[in-house]
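note to self: dont lose this again. the chain is below, predicted strucutre after it. 118 aa total, dont forget to put it in the shared folder this time
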Amino acid sequence: VQLQASGGGLVQAGGSLRLSCAASVSIFSFNRVGWYRQAPGKQRELVATITSTDSTNYADSVKGRFTISRDNAKPVMYLQMNSLRSEDTAVYYCNALWMRDTSIRNYWGQGTLVTVSS
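---
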């Protein structure tokens, strides 16, 4: 399984970006997919996840500003980021969790850098 993240870049505070993550298999193969981020000098943190039953979860810091979604026709998931703040600057990683019986597999994309200038 391969995950390819894209869409990062430099944006001014208040602006928007949409991140994409293309998977080499159907997104519905996974129990949950999502986005995490890691800012310089900080630990990786959860940004947003969506389950195979469309249940979503967001970090408090991005609620109301970010939206996670996936394209049913393609193996792609998205993170729409609006009203960006300087504190959103980080490397964003897509993630896919696969669980069957007692087997768990966790897949990561390579990361895409988002820089928000104030």
